[in-house]
Design goal:
Number of strands: 0
Shape: rod-shaped
Helix content: over 70%
Mean pLDDT: 88
Low-confidence stretches: 1-6
Strand content: under 5%
Order of helices and strands: HHHHH
Radius of gyration: 36 Å
Number of helices: 5
Largest sheet: none
Structural class: mainly alpha
Distance between the termini: 89 Å
Length: 168
């Protein structure tokens, strides 16, 4: 990433939600949004600069071609020939590559902002589920018949042992 604010970006780590620490995740959420909003703003600025630089390169090459067509192997000056000659110049290709890379990074940052908004929704829903005891252990209904039978067997066993002791 071509960001200028020297913040290390780790999208996967930043999108992770620890369900066991929802309070800490909520405290981190505004900082994440601020961090990536700043990154997006920086990238939008870089994009604007790269666009302006590409337009300047185009204008300078247009001027240079018109001024000295032979230097660019142009026999007849037409708008189409000039535009085609411009896009074949190495200087223009480098400027275009920088512009397209910055545009890609900017779109990626917009996607991350969208992911952070989704993360917020996920946190909201996880808190709702937590409030409804969704994360509590499973509540298994008691089988009263089985418990009654086990208790009855235990009583019978104890009675049997008492009888054995009294017979001795």
């Amino acid at each position: 990433m071509m960001i200028k604010n020297n913040q290390k970006m780790n999208y996967e780590k930043d999108m992770y939600i620890d369900e066991d620490a929802l309070d800490l995740e909520w405290l981190e959420q505004p900082a994440l949004m601020r961090k990536y909003s700043r990154t997006l703003a920086d990238l939008e600025h870089e994009y604007d600069e790269a666009k302006e630089e590409l337009e300047l390169i185009r204008a300078e090459l247009d001027r240079d071609i018109r001024k000295d067509p032979e230097e660019f192997d142009v026999v007849k000056i037409t708008e189409t020939v000039i535009q085609n000659t411009i896009i074949m110049q190495e200087r223009y290709e480098k400027g275009l590559e920088k512009f397209l890379n910055t545009k890609h990074e900017m779109k990626t940052a917009r996607g991350v902002i969208s992911s952070i908004e989704q993360r917020k929704s996920a946190l909201e829903n996880l808190v709702k589920l937590h409030g409804q005891n969704y994360f509590a252990g499973p509540a298994i209904p008691r089988d009263l018949r089985e418990e009654r039978e086990l208790k009855e067997k235990e009583i019978q066993k104890n009675i049997g042992e008492k009888l054995k002791r009294t017979k001795k």
